[in-house]
Amino acid sequence: MDGGMGQWVTAAGALALVLGLLWLVARLARRGGLAMAGPRRMRVVEVTPIDSRRRAVILRVDGREALVVTGGPQDSFLGWLPPPP
Hints:
The chain has one helix at residues 3-32, and strands at residues 42-49, 55-61, 64-70, 76-80. Helices cover 35% and strands 32% of the residues. The chain has a four-stranded antiparallel sheet with strand order 1-2-3-4, with no helix packed on it. It is of the alpha+beta class.
């Protein structure tokens, strides 16, 4: 290896090391809960398979729950669920 090729190998190795460290820090931040910017407005409450392609999904959005069917030719919003008693 001449000097020019050795510099490229060193640069590629340094880049791989930096990218690996960034990936590790991002993974640890997500696991530790540091990556969230603020409170989430939407989350999945429950998922129930209907058949091999479709699923019924209950989403909680701003304190209200919605029923959505996903899969098949298109997704469908079926409506807001009444609050629990």
